[in-house]
Amino acid sequence: GKMWKIKYPNRAERYDRGCCHSCLHYVLDYETPKTLVIQSKAVGFVFRFTQLLVILYVVGYVCVVQKGYQETDSVISTVTTKVKGFAYSNTSDLEHRFWDVADYVIPPQGDHSFFVLTNIIVTPNQTQSRCPELPTPSSICTADCDCTEGHSDPRSNGIQTGLCVNYSDTQQTCEVLRWCVISHVHAMLAAAENFTVLIKNSVTYPKFKFHRRNIMPQINSSYLRRCEFNRITDPDCPIFRLKHIVSEAGEDFQSMAVKGGVLGILIDWSCDLDWWAGKCYPKYSFQRLDNKNPNNSVAPGYNFRFARYYKTPDGEETRTLIKGYGIRFDVIVFGTVRPE
Amino acid sequence: GKMWKIKYPNRAERYDRGCCHSCLHYVLDYETPKTLVIQSKAVGFVFRFTQLLVILYVVGYVCVVQKGYQETDSVISTVTTKVKGFAYSNTSDLEHRFWDVADYVIPPQGDHSFFVLTNIIVTPNQTQSRCPELPTPSSICTADCDCTEGHSDPRSNGIQTGLCVNYSDTQQTCEVLRWCVISHVHAMLAAAENFTVLIKNSVTYPKFKFHRRNIMPQINSSYLRRCEFNRITDPDCPIFRLKHIVSEAGEDFQSMAVKGGVLGILIDWSCDLDWWAGKCYPKYSFQRLDNKNPNNSVAPGYNFRFARYYKTPDGEETRTLIKGYGIRFDVIVFGTVRPE
Amino acid sequence: GKMWKIKYPNRAERYDRGCCHSCLHYVLDYETPKTLVIQSKAVGFVFRFTQLLVILYVVGYVCVVQKGYQETDSVISTVTTKVKGFAYSNTSDLEHRFWDVADYVIPPQGDHSFFVLTNIIVTPNQTQSRCPELPTPSSICTADCDCTEGHSDPRSNGIQTGLCVNYSDTQQTCEVLRWCVISHVHAMLAAAENFTVLIKNSVTYPKFKFHRRNIMPQINSSYLRRCEFNRITDPDCPIFRLKHIVSEAGEDFQSMAVKGGVLGILIDWSCDLDWWAGKCYPKYSFQRLDNKNPNNSVAPGYNFRFARYYKTPDGEETRTLIKGYGIRFDVIVFGTVRPE
Known about the structure:
CATH topology of the largest domain in chain A: atp-gated p2x4 ion channel fold
Largest sheet of chain A: 9 strands, mixed
Order of helices and strands of chain A: HHEEHEEEEHEEEEEEEHEHHEEEEEE
Number of domains of chain A: 3
CATH superfamily of the largest domain in chain A: atp-gated p2x4 ion channel domain
Oligomer: homotrimer
CATH class of the largest domain in chain A: Mainly Beta
């Protein structure tokens, strides 16, 4: 039962011929292993079953589960946010003051990162002028010769003028040139926890020409006007109450509002575009991103200083310095889409 | 013609010896399949040709086309943008008003995301004071007892003072504490379509110490001073006319300017650093990133409120509230470089 | 010594039976190559040694070095920055002026990208009014008929009113409506090189529930209050002197301060979470991201224009236009963590 005519040359004969001819022989010789055919049903069954397992692994695990055949693409995303709500501060300092979006959202653009003021220390009517330093070991003086004109200590707040002046009835400190502080007023926006934010997020996967947004097609406008995100009852609503976001991240809004912090709103767009994989929708999660109670912290929480500049009727520049504590919300979009 | 001396021990003999010795035998036995050498040129040719195809596939497809041998690295990019142009609003409301870059680009820094004002509703001279609510079912009142001091309805715009006051000759509404509105003025910056933006983009692939910018080395300064991006005639010019960007994205500038929107300027740096792959240059594309005409939208378009704060000569704070509609341009840089 | 009973059917016999029976035979036939067992210790040793090398390669290189068994995850990062320091400009123009954080950091939020003013051209007291154009070939005129009302040349700075007015004693130019410029003042903040910035960076790898921050647990608060980053002596300190950052990037602060630029602070979180890989800590590097001295540049350096708006006592709006040159610091976080 042989299919091929086989000639067994002996070694000597092969090497006797010309080199080229001999090489060609080697190149065109086809070696195949001799095989035994074992006609046992038991052995054959075990053998084919093993083959089946290998095929199932390749098709089932590598192709279907791991989708080894698929390319992936990272997300290109755009986010706009719009905060709503107003607050009313009634601390004795700032009398009754009303705060709306243009007052407490910084910057106002509604980008993927927005900041909501919750706690404010205002220093109004600052002018550039000369005033005594706060008393510290290096600023206390007894005569002008203790102060050096033009000297600026990084730990102080201004440039010394060279004079030693009265800070209080009992203390003298060096005079400095700076934005002088007359008084501080303090306000807390406790109502900020009830502000809501609408997050609009569109994602694009350029390689797959795939475009999707977080407001799903089945949601209608009247629902959007009154809904509020809740993981169980309203998981698709893009309007979030700030207090709810913070508590989902395991924090308490009012205690976070005092010192400020950074809170991440994570939108996970990990999607599978295979037809059997169901629809592609965003999954929201919330997480505090700064460190709450570290043992080793400088400047815990989140705050920054900014100023509003005014001119007095006689043309002098004054400013109101605001040290604002608050919560920065960072909308972070991630995920990998697998194409159809 | 055997090269090795082979001894066929019978099974019994092998197991008779000490276990260790027997094990060692198994470990050092070398099994090799018996092979047939078929000396047929036809068969040999088919065999070698098949081998050649496999080698060509590995070298040609896996190595050259897919570059399976290459590592890839994601891009680290920096973008600066600079808008130029001015506009002139001559609606009856705002008399003749001139707008330059410092007026209409927000924020001014020229980051990877910049916003150009196109449509403005200005509410000047707001002061914190008491004024009647707009008439709604919940704000209309007939006597003071209909209004609750300190009550703030999220759908209203302020905190009730507890008084019921005249809104018009025929209607009474609750008085609220808020930034009171005297009048609105409206302006449209139609000339914004002719603004230009210079985009400077540098990319770095830290793993490959590769650095490139979107202003190609062969471009000279005099060309840069007068050029304008055009996919066909000037594909390398980094100066873009806003109207052109918007129309490349398939939109009309003037209709997008009314409600605002978000437009992506996509810079694709997918590069191949193999020497035969030619130079590495950025490919620009433009795409509207927000949803234009959804059936289910809240707050369609793109706008935000911001305020400028002033002080009156007697020290009272007033503000000008601006509701700005416009186009946010997001420069999105992506791409994977394959190293040399 | 045969383990299986083998029947060698001849071809004719097999094809004589029914097709199905014959097929089943083929399906359940088990083919195994005939092997030679060569009992030579030398050959066996070479053979097993080669096998050992293959196993060592797979375990040692693929699994341990390349960690082919590991999944990787990209970093989600949050950055807050806080600049400290003050400067004093004593150019004759702006008299003595003091600058603190609220004056020179733009935007004030302390995001991953912050800008420090180093060189300022201030144009105070601009009002919207009519003034002669700067003399250029297209703006010089001899009579009103040379100027067209409503015409705006993109290269000019305003909209023509149609009048030809005196620019100087010898020249007449068209009058335009614009923010008129009275004078410029110039200031340089040389002390900016001694400002320090505290960078707080938290990273999260959502797939691995791994969270880490750049302030390492072993650092205590008193160290943080006085330390300053230095690659050799203080590599873990998160407080950076601006001059040091710029010089690590191979640039000179004072020369970069004149025209401005963009400087990247790269934080590399490439980590290996295998237990033997040691702790995971950030590696800082610094790099200038814009092009320093290109042959072909438009608008070299980094600057932008912004305005502060004021109202005069009689309600007219004025603005102070500031053209600010400075250094934008972009904190760029990258890296891939490999899980435990």
